[in-house]
Amino acid sequence: MLQNVHHYRPDRFTRLRDMLTSKEPRFLMEAHDGLSAKIAQEAGFEGLWASGLSISAALGVRDNNELSWTQVLAQLEYMNDAVDLPILVDGDTGYGNFNNFRRFVAKLCERGIAGVCIEDKLFPKTNSFLEGSQTLASVEEFCGKIKAGKDIQSHPDFSIVARIEALISGAGMEEALMRAAAYADAGADALVIHSKKADPDEILEFLDKWDHRVPVILIPTKYYRTPTKTLTDAGGSLVIWANHNMRAAMQAMRETCATIMRDQSLVAVEAEVAPLADVFALAGNEELERAEAQYLAAQPDTSAIILAASRGTELAELTRDRPKCMLNVRGATILDRQLSALTQNRVEDVAVIVGYRHEAVETGDARKLVNDAYETTGEVASLALARDMLTRPAIISYGDILFQPFFVDLLRGATGDFTLLVDPEGDRPDETGTRKPQDLVKCSAPFSGLGGAQRPALMEIADGLVGADGKWVGLMGCSARGARKLAEEIASLEEGGLLATADLPMLLTRLMARGEVVDVIYVTGNWVNVNDLADLSEARNAM
User: pTM (2 decimals)?
Assistant: First the structure.
Protein backbone atom coordinates (compact mmCIF):
# COMPACT_ATOMS: atom_id res chain seq x y z
CA MET A 1 0.00 0.00 0.00
CA LEU A 2 1.36 3.39 -1.00
CA GLN A 3 1.98 5.84 1.80
CA ASN A 4 1.62 9.59 1.66
CA VAL A 5 5.04 11.17 1.37
CA HIS A 6 5.75 14.69 2.61
CA HIS A 7 8.31 16.29 0.31
CA TYR A 8 10.32 18.53 2.62
CA ARG A 9 11.47 21.84 1.16
CA PRO A 10 14.14 23.54 3.28
CA ASP A 11 13.30 27.00 4.53
CA ARG A 12 14.85 30.07 2.93
CA PHE A 13 17.61 30.37 5.53
CA THR A 14 18.80 26.83 4.84
CA ARG A 15 18.51 27.20 1.07
CA LEU A 16 20.77 30.25 1.09
CA ARG A 17 23.27 28.45 3.31
CA ASP A 18 23.22 25.50 0.88
CA MET A 19 23.90 27.87 -2.01
CA LEU A 20 26.88 29.39 -0.19
CA THR A 21 28.47 26.02 0.53
CA SER A 22 27.61 24.32 -2.77
CA LYS A 23 30.37 22.75 -4.85
CA GLU A 24 28.53 23.85 -8.00
CA PRO A 25 28.32 27.44 -9.30
CA ARG A 26 25.28 29.24 -7.87
CA PHE A 27 23.84 32.66 -8.66
CA LEU A 28 21.85 35.45 -7.02
CA MET A 29 19.93 37.97 -9.14
CA GLU A 30 19.45 41.55 -8.06
CA ALA A 31 15.94 42.67 -7.12
CA HIS A 32 14.73 45.85 -5.51
CA ASP A 33 10.95 45.42 -5.13
CA GLY A 34 8.23 42.80 -5.35
CA LEU A 35 7.91 43.05 -9.13
CA SER A 36 11.62 42.63 -9.88
CA ALA A 37 11.72 39.76 -7.38
CA LYS A 38 8.90 37.99 -9.23
CA ILE A 39 10.58 38.52 -12.58
CA ALA A 40 13.84 37.06 -11.26
CA GLN A 41 12.02 34.04 -9.90
CA GLU A 42 10.13 33.65 -13.18
CA ALA A 43 13.49 33.57 -15.01
CA GLY A 44 14.61 30.64 -12.86
CA PHE A 45 16.94 32.23 -10.32
CA GLU A 46 17.02 30.39 -7.01
CA GLY A 47 17.94 33.36 -4.83
CA LEU A 48 17.91 37.15 -4.73
CA TRP A 49 20.38 39.92 -3.94
CA ALA A 50 18.49 42.84 -2.42
CA SER A 51 20.82 45.55 -3.66
CA GLY A 52 21.20 48.68 -1.55
CA LEU A 53 22.09 50.68 -4.65
CA SER A 54 19.01 49.45 -6.53
CA ILE A 55 16.57 49.89 -3.65
CA SER A 56 17.88 53.41 -3.08
CA ALA A 57 17.68 54.27 -6.78
CA ALA A 58 14.15 52.85 -7.09
CA LEU A 59 13.08 55.11 -4.22
CA GLY A 60 14.85 58.14 -5.66
CA VAL A 61 17.63 58.58 -3.09
CA ARG A 62 21.41 58.16 -3.07
CA ASP A 63 23.27 55.01 -2.05
CA ASN A 64 24.75 56.78 0.97
CA ASN A 65 22.59 55.38 3.79
CA GLU A 66 19.88 57.92 2.99
CA LEU A 67 17.40 55.09 3.59
CA SER A 68 17.04 53.92 7.17
CA TRP A 69 17.19 50.22 7.90
CA THR A 70 13.48 50.24 8.72
CA GLN A 71 12.71 51.61 5.24
CA VAL A 72 14.87 48.90 3.69
CA LEU A 73 13.10 46.32 5.84
CA ALA A 74 9.71 47.51 4.54
CA GLN A 75 10.88 46.97 0.96
CA LEU A 76 12.25 43.53 1.85
CA GLU A 77 8.87 42.49 3.24
CA TYR A 78 7.24 43.13 -0.15
CA MET A 79 9.97 41.15 -1.88
CA ASN A 80 9.80 38.27 0.56
CA ASP A 81 6.01 38.10 0.26
CA ALA A 82 6.19 38.18 -3.53
CA VAL A 83 8.40 35.11 -4.02
CA ASP A 84 9.52 31.87 -2.42
CA LEU A 85 13.24 32.60 -2.75
CA PRO A 86 15.96 33.21 -0.18
CA ILE A 87 17.10 36.83 -0.05
CA LEU A 88 20.59 38.03 0.78
CA VAL A 89 20.22 41.71 1.62
CA ASP A 90 22.87 44.34 1.08
CA GLY A 91 23.17 45.72 4.63
CA ASP A 92 25.72 48.43 3.76
CA THR A 93 27.88 48.99 6.86
CA GLY A 94 25.26 47.68 9.29
CA TYR A 95 23.51 51.05 9.79
CA GLY A 96 25.75 52.13 12.65
CA ASN A 97 27.63 50.27 15.36
CA PHE A 98 27.16 46.70 16.63
CA ASN A 99 23.90 47.62 18.36
CA ASN A 100 22.23 48.98 15.24
CA PHE A 101 23.39 45.94 13.31
CA ARG A 102 22.15 43.36 15.80
CA ARG A 103 18.73 45.03 15.86
CA PHE A 104 18.68 44.81 12.07
CA VAL A 105 19.66 41.12 12.16
CA ALA A 106 16.93 40.35 14.70
CA LYS A 107 14.29 41.97 12.48
CA LEU A 108 15.58 40.21 9.36
CA CYS A 109 15.26 36.86 11.08
CA GLU A 110 11.72 37.72 12.20
CA ARG A 111 10.77 38.58 8.61
CA GLY A 112 12.32 35.44 7.12
CA ILE A 113 15.13 37.20 5.24
CA ALA A 114 17.81 34.56 4.76
CA GLY A 115 21.01 36.58 5.14
CA VAL A 116 22.74 39.95 5.24
CA CYS A 117 25.99 41.23 3.75
CA ILE A 118 27.86 44.08 5.47
CA GLU A 119 30.94 45.93 4.23
CA ASP A 120 33.90 47.01 6.32
CA LYS A 121 33.66 50.76 5.76
CA LEU A 122 32.46 53.61 7.95
CA PHE A 123 28.86 54.72 8.40
CA PRO A 124 27.44 56.44 6.41
CA LYS A 125 28.83 54.43 3.51
CA THR A 126 29.84 55.65 0.08
CA ASN A 127 29.13 53.45 -2.93
CA SER A 128 32.23 51.45 -3.81
CA PHE A 129 32.26 52.56 -7.44
CA LEU A 130 32.27 56.31 -6.68
CA GLU A 131 35.52 58.24 -6.71
CA GLY A 132 36.81 59.59 -3.45
CA SER A 133 37.74 58.32 -0.02
CA GLN A 134 36.73 54.80 0.94
CA THR A 135 37.81 54.69 4.58
CA LEU A 136 37.85 51.24 6.12
CA ALA A 137 36.47 50.42 9.55
CA SER A 138 38.87 48.99 12.08
CA VAL A 139 39.15 45.21 12.03
CA GLU A 140 38.23 45.01 15.72
CA GLU A 141 35.09 47.13 15.32
CA PHE A 142 33.91 45.18 12.29
CA CYS A 143 34.54 41.82 13.95
CA GLY A 144 32.45 43.04 16.87
CA LYS A 145 29.53 43.67 14.49
CA ILE A 146 29.83 40.17 13.06
CA LYS A 147 29.88 38.60 16.53
CA ALA A 148 26.91 40.69 17.69
CA GLY A 149 24.90 39.63 14.64
CA LYS A 150 25.74 35.95 15.10
CA ASP A 151 24.81 36.11 18.78
CA ILE A 152 21.40 37.67 18.10
CA GLN A 153 20.27 35.65 15.07
CA SER A 154 17.23 33.52 15.86
CA HIS A 155 17.67 30.96 13.05
CA PRO A 156 20.78 28.76 13.02
CA ASP A 157 21.16 29.04 9.23
CA PHE A 158 20.84 32.82 9.00
CA SER A 159 23.92 33.92 7.07
CA ILE A 160 26.15 36.91 7.77
CA VAL A 161 28.42 37.74 4.87
CA ALA A 162 31.40 40.05 5.38
CA ARG A 163 32.31 42.20 2.39
CA ILE A 164 35.98 43.15 2.18
CA GLU A 165 36.63 46.61 0.71
CA ALA A 166 40.43 46.58 1.04
CA LEU A 167 40.97 46.29 -2.72
CA ILE A 168 38.38 49.01 -3.38
CA SER A 169 40.08 51.38 -0.96
CA GLY A 170 43.58 50.69 -2.27
CA ALA A 171 44.76 49.06 0.97
CA GLY A 172 46.17 46.10 -0.94
CA MET A 173 46.06 42.31 -1.07
CA GLU A 174 47.73 41.58 2.27
CA GLU A 175 45.19 43.79 4.03
CA ALA A 176 42.36 41.98 2.23
CA LEU A 177 43.67 38.55 3.24
CA MET A 178 44.27 39.63 6.84
CA ARG A 179 40.73 40.96 7.10
CA ALA A 180 39.31 37.84 5.49
CA ALA A 181 40.92 35.66 8.14
CA ALA A 182 39.76 37.92 10.99
CA TYR A 183 36.17 38.03 9.72
CA ALA A 184 36.03 34.27 9.29
CA ASP A 185 37.34 33.81 12.82
CA ALA A 186 34.67 36.24 14.09
CA GLY A 187 31.94 33.98 12.69
CA ALA A 188 31.21 35.26 9.16
CA ASP A 189 29.47 32.56 7.14
CA ALA A 190 30.93 33.80 3.85
CA LEU A 191 33.03 36.63 2.40
CA VAL A 192 32.67 38.99 -0.52
CA ILE A 193 35.89 40.16 -2.10
CA HIS A 194 35.10 43.32 -4.02
CA SER A 195 36.93 45.06 -6.85
CA LYS A 196 36.25 47.94 -9.21
CA LYS A 197 38.90 47.01 -11.75
CA ALA A 198 37.85 46.01 -15.25
CA ASP A 199 40.04 42.91 -15.15
CA PRO A 200 39.77 40.03 -12.65
CA ASP A 201 43.44 39.80 -11.77
CA GLU A 202 43.26 40.88 -8.13
CA ILE A 203 40.14 38.79 -7.57
CA LEU A 204 41.85 35.71 -8.96
CA GLU A 205 44.94 36.45 -6.84
CA PHE A 206 42.81 36.66 -3.70
CA LEU A 207 41.08 33.39 -4.52
CA ASP A 208 44.43 31.73 -5.08
CA LYS A 209 45.89 32.93 -1.77
CA TRP A 210 42.78 32.48 0.42
CA ASP A 211 42.51 29.21 2.37
CA HIS A 212 38.72 28.98 1.72
CA ARG A 213 37.81 28.21 5.31
CA VAL A 214 34.56 30.04 4.46
CA PRO A 215 33.05 30.50 0.98
CA VAL A 216 33.82 33.53 -1.20
CA ILE A 217 31.12 35.43 -3.11
CA LEU A 218 31.98 37.45 -6.22
CA ILE A 219 30.24 40.51 -7.69
CA PRO A 220 31.64 40.94 -11.24
CA THR A 221 29.93 44.26 -12.03
CA LYS A 222 33.15 45.84 -13.32
CA TYR A 223 35.02 42.77 -14.57
CA TYR A 224 31.95 41.44 -16.37
CA ARG A 225 33.92 40.35 -19.47
CA THR A 226 35.57 37.59 -17.44
CA PRO A 227 33.97 34.19 -18.18
CA THR A 228 31.96 33.06 -15.21
CA LYS A 229 33.59 29.64 -15.39
CA THR A 230 36.98 31.27 -14.85
CA LEU A 231 35.71 32.77 -11.61
CA THR A 232 34.01 29.67 -10.28
CA ASP A 233 36.92 27.40 -11.28
CA ALA A 234 39.18 29.71 -9.27
CA GLY A 235 37.10 29.15 -6.14
CA GLY A 236 34.18 31.57 -6.27
CA SER A 237 31.27 29.83 -4.58
CA LEU A 238 28.47 32.21 -5.52
CA VAL A 239 28.13 34.96 -8.12
CA ILE A 240 25.88 37.99 -7.65
CA TRP A 241 24.47 39.87 -10.64
CA ALA A 242 24.25 43.01 -8.57
CA ASN A 243 22.21 45.81 -10.17
CA HIS A 244 21.09 44.85 -13.65
CA ASN A 245 17.34 44.66 -13.12
CA MET A 246 17.33 48.25 -11.91
CA ARG A 247 19.58 49.47 -14.72
CA ALA A 248 17.54 47.64 -17.35
CA ALA A 249 14.34 49.18 -15.98
CA MET A 250 15.87 52.67 -16.09
CA GLN A 251 16.86 52.29 -19.73
CA ALA A 252 13.47 50.91 -20.78
CA MET A 253 11.55 53.63 -18.92
CA ARG A 254 13.71 56.37 -20.42
CA GLU A 255 13.10 55.09 -23.95
CA THR A 256 9.37 54.71 -23.36
CA CYS A 257 8.97 58.17 -21.81
CA ALA A 258 10.98 59.80 -24.60
CA THR A 259 8.90 58.11 -27.30
CA ILE A 260 5.57 59.07 -25.71
CA MET A 261 6.73 62.63 -25.12
CA ARG A 262 7.86 62.94 -28.74
CA ASP A 263 4.86 61.28 -30.38
CA GLN A 264 2.13 62.27 -27.91
CA SER A 265 0.75 58.84 -28.67
CA LEU A 266 1.03 55.27 -27.38
CA VAL A 267 1.06 53.64 -30.82
CA ALA A 268 4.84 53.30 -31.08
CA VAL A 269 5.35 51.87 -27.59
CA GLU A 270 2.38 49.58 -27.07
CA ALA A 271 4.01 46.64 -28.83
CA GLU A 272 7.26 47.18 -26.91
CA VAL A 273 5.90 47.14 -23.36
CA ALA A 274 4.55 44.26 -21.32
CA PRO A 275 0.84 43.62 -21.92
CA LEU A 276 -1.52 44.46 -19.06
CA ALA A 277 -2.43 40.79 -18.80
CA ASP A 278 1.20 40.12 -17.91
CA VAL A 279 1.03 42.71 -15.12
CA PHE A 280 -2.10 41.11 -13.72
CA ALA A 281 -0.56 37.64 -13.96
CA LEU A 282 2.58 38.67 -12.07
CA ALA A 283 0.44 40.37 -9.43
CA GLY A 284 -1.40 37.08 -8.82
CA ASN A 285 -4.89 38.08 -9.89
CA GLU A 286 -5.84 34.49 -10.72
CA GLU A 287 -5.14 33.44 -7.14
CA LEU A 288 -7.37 36.25 -5.88
CA GLU A 289 -10.18 35.11 -8.18
CA ARG A 290 -9.88 31.55 -6.83
CA ALA A 291 -9.86 32.88 -3.27
CA GLU A 292 -12.91 35.03 -3.93
CA ALA A 293 -14.75 32.01 -5.31
CA GLN A 294 -13.88 30.12 -2.14
CA TYR A 295 -14.37 32.77 0.53
CA LEU A 296 -16.97 35.08 -0.95
CA ALA A 297 -19.27 32.29 -2.05
CA ALA A 298 -20.86 32.14 1.38
CA GLN A 299 -21.83 35.80 1.25
CA PRO A 300 -25.33 36.57 -0.01
CA ASP A 301 -25.37 37.78 -3.60
CA THR A 302 -26.51 41.34 -4.17
CA SER A 303 -29.16 42.07 -6.78
CA ALA A 304 -29.88 45.39 -8.46
CA ILE A 305 -33.07 46.93 -9.81
CA ILE A 306 -32.86 49.85 -12.23
CA LEU A 307 -36.05 51.91 -12.65
CA ALA A 308 -35.90 53.12 -16.25
CA ALA A 309 -39.52 53.21 -17.46
CA SER A 310 -39.92 56.93 -18.15
CA ARG A 311 -39.33 58.74 -21.42
CA GLY A 312 -37.71 61.95 -20.21
CA THR A 313 -39.94 64.46 -22.00
CA GLU A 314 -37.69 67.39 -21.06
CA LEU A 315 -35.16 65.97 -23.51
CA ALA A 316 -37.58 66.55 -26.39
CA GLU A 317 -36.58 64.98 -29.72
CA LEU A 318 -33.66 63.09 -28.20
CA THR A 319 -36.16 60.73 -26.57
CA ARG A 320 -38.65 60.53 -29.40
CA ASP A 321 -37.66 56.97 -30.32
CA ARG A 322 -35.98 55.80 -27.11
CA PRO A 323 -36.16 56.41 -23.35
CA LYS A 324 -33.54 58.61 -21.73
CA CYS A 325 -31.71 55.64 -20.22
CA MET A 326 -30.55 54.89 -23.78
CA LEU A 327 -29.03 58.33 -24.41
CA ASN A 328 -25.38 58.20 -25.35
CA VAL A 329 -22.85 59.78 -23.00
CA ARG A 330 -19.36 59.73 -24.48
CA GLY A 331 -19.63 56.41 -26.24
CA ALA A 332 -21.92 54.48 -23.89
CA THR A 333 -25.56 54.79 -22.93
CA ILE A 334 -26.62 55.84 -19.44
CA LEU A 335 -27.89 52.30 -18.86
CA ASP A 336 -24.66 50.70 -20.10
CA ARG A 337 -22.68 52.86 -17.70
CA GLN A 338 -24.90 51.81 -14.80
CA LEU A 339 -24.62 48.14 -15.72
CA SER A 340 -20.84 48.47 -16.00
CA ALA A 341 -20.60 50.09 -12.55
CA LEU A 342 -22.61 47.22 -11.08
CA THR A 343 -20.59 44.53 -12.86
CA GLN A 344 -17.31 46.06 -11.68
CA ASN A 345 -18.57 45.59 -8.14
CA ARG A 346 -19.73 41.99 -8.75
CA VAL A 347 -23.43 42.77 -8.87
CA GLU A 348 -24.54 40.57 -11.73
CA ASP A 349 -28.18 39.74 -11.01
CA VAL A 350 -29.77 42.89 -12.42
CA ALA A 351 -33.31 43.71 -13.55
CA VAL A 352 -34.10 46.77 -15.65
CA ILE A 353 -37.70 47.99 -15.43
CA VAL A 354 -38.62 49.58 -18.75
CA GLY A 355 -41.77 51.15 -20.19
CA TYR A 356 -41.58 53.88 -22.84
CA ARG A 357 -40.22 52.45 -26.11
CA HIS A 358 -39.10 49.36 -24.24
CA GLU A 359 -38.19 47.62 -27.49
CA ALA A 360 -35.35 50.15 -27.92
CA VAL A 361 -33.76 49.29 -24.57
CA GLU A 362 -30.77 46.97 -24.72
CA THR A 363 -30.09 45.38 -21.34
CA GLY A 364 -27.34 42.88 -22.17
CA ASP A 365 -27.29 40.10 -19.58
CA ALA A 366 -29.71 41.94 -17.29
CA ARG A 367 -33.37 40.97 -17.15
CA LYS A 368 -35.83 43.28 -18.85
CA LEU A 369 -39.18 43.73 -17.11
CA VAL A 370 -41.84 45.87 -18.80
CA ASN A 371 -44.16 48.22 -16.96
CA ASP A 372 -46.91 48.61 -19.57
CA ALA A 373 -48.70 51.16 -17.36
CA TYR A 374 -45.64 53.43 -17.06
CA GLU A 375 -47.64 56.52 -18.10
CA THR A 376 -50.10 56.22 -15.21
CA THR A 377 -47.97 54.64 -12.47
CA GLY A 378 -44.94 55.68 -10.45
CA GLU A 379 -41.63 54.27 -9.39
CA VAL A 380 -42.93 51.85 -6.78
CA ALA A 381 -45.24 50.16 -9.29
CA SER A 382 -42.17 49.55 -11.46
CA LEU A 383 -40.23 48.29 -8.46
CA ALA A 384 -43.06 45.90 -7.63
CA LEU A 385 -42.41 44.05 -10.90
CA ALA A 386 -39.10 42.86 -9.44
CA ARG A 387 -40.30 42.15 -5.92
CA ASP A 388 -39.12 38.53 -6.25
CA MET A 389 -35.57 39.94 -6.08
CA LEU A 390 -36.23 41.57 -2.70
CA THR A 391 -35.20 38.56 -0.63
CA ARG A 392 -31.48 39.34 -0.37
CA PRO A 393 -29.27 42.44 -0.38
CA ALA A 394 -30.33 44.78 -3.16
CA ILE A 395 -29.38 48.05 -4.80
CA ILE A 396 -32.13 50.20 -6.29
CA SER A 397 -31.27 52.90 -8.80
CA TYR A 398 -33.10 55.50 -10.84
CA GLY A 399 -32.51 54.86 -14.52
CA ASP A 400 -31.46 58.41 -15.41
CA ILE A 401 -28.39 58.88 -13.24
CA LEU A 402 -24.71 58.53 -13.99
CA PHE A 403 -22.36 57.74 -11.12
CA GLN A 404 -18.86 56.54 -10.42
CA PRO A 405 -18.54 52.77 -9.73
CA PHE A 406 -17.33 53.33 -6.17
CA PHE A 407 -20.88 54.42 -5.26
CA VAL A 408 -21.91 50.77 -5.58
CA ASP A 409 -19.05 49.74 -3.32
CA LEU A 410 -20.21 52.25 -0.70
CA LEU A 411 -23.67 50.70 -0.67
CA ARG A 412 -22.40 47.13 -0.61
CA GLY A 413 -20.22 47.98 2.38
CA ALA A 414 -23.03 49.64 4.33
CA THR A 415 -24.17 47.85 7.48
CA GLY A 416 -27.67 49.27 7.90
CA ASP A 417 -30.91 47.84 6.53
CA PHE A 418 -31.49 50.90 4.34
CA THR A 419 -28.84 53.29 3.04
CA LEU A 420 -29.16 56.34 0.81
CA LEU A 421 -26.36 58.26 -0.92
CA VAL A 422 -26.90 61.99 -0.41
CA ASP A 423 -25.03 64.87 -2.03
CA PRO A 424 -24.84 67.81 0.43
CA GLU A 425 -24.13 70.12 -2.52
CA GLY A 426 -27.28 69.14 -4.39
CA ASP A 427 -29.96 71.52 -5.70
CA ARG A 428 -31.93 73.74 -3.34
CA PRO A 429 -35.26 75.60 -3.87
CA ASP A 430 -34.86 79.12 -5.32
CA GLU A 431 -35.85 82.19 -3.33
CA THR A 432 -39.24 82.52 -5.07
CA GLY A 433 -40.22 78.99 -4.24
CA THR A 434 -41.23 78.33 -7.85
CA ARG A 435 -38.41 75.89 -8.42
CA LYS A 436 -38.79 72.67 -6.41
CA PRO A 437 -35.83 70.30 -6.81
CA GLN A 438 -36.73 66.67 -6.28
CA ASP A 439 -35.68 64.27 -3.55
CA LEU A 440 -34.25 66.75 -1.07
CA VAL A 441 -33.53 65.37 2.39
CA LYS A 442 -33.15 66.41 5.98
CA CYS A 443 -30.84 64.27 8.11
CA SER A 444 -30.06 63.79 11.79
CA ALA A 445 -26.69 65.51 11.21
CA PRO A 446 -25.52 67.82 8.43
CA PHE A 447 -22.52 67.11 6.26
CA SER A 448 -19.25 67.76 8.11
CA GLY A 449 -16.61 66.37 5.75
CA LEU A 450 -15.81 63.06 4.08
CA GLY A 451 -13.74 60.24 5.46
CA GLY A 452 -15.13 59.93 8.98
CA ALA A 453 -17.46 57.44 10.61
CA GLN A 454 -20.39 59.77 10.01
CA ARG A 455 -23.63 57.84 9.41
CA PRO A 456 -26.55 60.21 9.97
CA ALA A 457 -30.10 58.98 9.64
CA LEU A 458 -32.69 60.21 7.17
CA MET A 459 -35.35 62.35 8.86
CA GLU A 460 -37.41 63.61 5.89
CA ILE A 461 -37.42 63.35 2.11
CA ALA A 462 -39.54 65.49 -0.22
CA ASP A 463 -39.45 67.76 -3.26
CA GLY A 464 -38.56 71.40 -2.61
CA LEU A 465 -37.70 70.76 1.03
CA VAL A 466 -36.64 74.03 2.71
CA GLY A 467 -33.54 73.76 4.91
CA ALA A 468 -32.49 70.49 3.31
CA ASP A 469 -29.14 68.89 4.14
CA GLY A 470 -28.71 67.65 0.59
CA LYS A 471 -30.19 65.82 -2.37
CA TRP A 472 -30.69 62.08 -2.67
CA VAL A 473 -28.54 60.82 -5.51
CA GLY A 474 -31.11 58.21 -6.56
CA LEU A 475 -29.23 55.15 -5.29
CA MET A 476 -30.38 53.07 -2.35
CA GLY A 477 -28.93 49.96 -0.76
CA CYS A 478 -30.80 47.40 1.30
CA SER A 479 -29.67 44.52 3.47
CA ALA A 480 -31.48 41.20 3.08
CA ARG A 481 -33.78 42.22 5.95
CA GLY A 482 -34.22 45.67 4.43
CA ALA A 483 -35.15 44.19 1.07
CA ARG A 484 -37.77 41.98 2.69
CA LYS A 485 -39.19 44.97 4.59
CA LEU A 486 -39.31 46.86 1.31
CA ALA A 487 -41.30 44.03 -0.30
CA GLU A 488 -43.69 43.99 2.68
CA GLU A 489 -44.29 47.74 2.35
CA ILE A 490 -44.92 47.39 -1.39
CA ALA A 491 -47.53 44.77 -0.59
CA SER A 492 -49.09 47.09 1.98
CA LEU A 493 -49.33 49.91 -0.59
CA GLU A 494 -50.92 47.52 -3.04
CA GLU A 495 -53.49 46.39 -0.49
CA GLY A 496 -54.31 50.01 0.30
CA GLY A 497 -54.80 50.93 -3.36
CA LEU A 498 -51.81 53.32 -3.30
CA LEU A 499 -49.32 51.35 -5.39
CA ALA A 500 -50.03 53.08 -8.71
CA THR A 501 -49.19 56.58 -7.46
CA ALA A 502 -46.46 55.80 -4.91
CA ASP A 503 -42.90 57.03 -5.46
CA LEU A 504 -39.72 56.04 -3.64
CA PRO A 505 -39.76 59.02 -1.21
CA MET A 506 -43.26 57.94 -0.15
CA LEU A 507 -42.04 54.37 0.32
CA LEU A 508 -39.12 55.54 2.47
CA THR A 509 -41.38 57.83 4.51
CA ARG A 510 -43.72 54.94 5.31
CA LEU A 511 -40.79 52.74 6.35
CA MET A 512 -39.52 55.42 8.73
CA ALA A 513 -43.03 55.80 10.16
CA ARG A 514 -42.89 52.11 11.03
CA GLY A 515 -39.68 52.66 12.99
CA GLU A 516 -37.16 51.64 10.32
CA VAL A 517 -33.87 53.56 10.27
CA VAL A 518 -32.61 54.80 6.92
CA ASP A 519 -28.89 55.56 7.01
CA VAL A 520 -27.28 58.29 4.93
CA ILE A 521 -23.82 58.34 3.37
CA TYR A 522 -22.78 61.76 2.14
CA VAL A 523 -21.05 61.93 -1.25
CA THR A 524 -19.93 65.07 -3.07
CA GLY A 525 -20.06 65.17 -6.85
CA ASN A 526 -19.14 62.19 -9.06
CA TRP A 527 -22.72 61.82 -10.29
CA VAL A 528 -25.20 63.53 -12.63
CA ASN A 529 -28.99 63.29 -12.79
CA VAL A 530 -29.97 63.56 -16.48
CA ASN A 531 -33.33 65.33 -16.66
CA ASP A 532 -32.85 67.84 -19.46
CA LEU A 533 -30.42 69.01 -22.15
CA ALA A 534 -28.31 70.96 -19.65
CA ASP A 535 -27.91 67.84 -17.51
CA LEU A 536 -26.96 65.80 -20.56
CA SER A 537 -24.32 68.34 -21.53
CA GLU A 538 -22.94 68.28 -17.97
CA ALA A 539 -22.85 64.49 -18.01
CA ARG A 540 -20.89 64.46 -21.26
CA ASN A 541 -18.34 66.84 -19.78
CA ALA A 542 -18.11 65.34 -16.30
CA MET A 543 -18.34 61.59 -16.86
Answer: 0.57
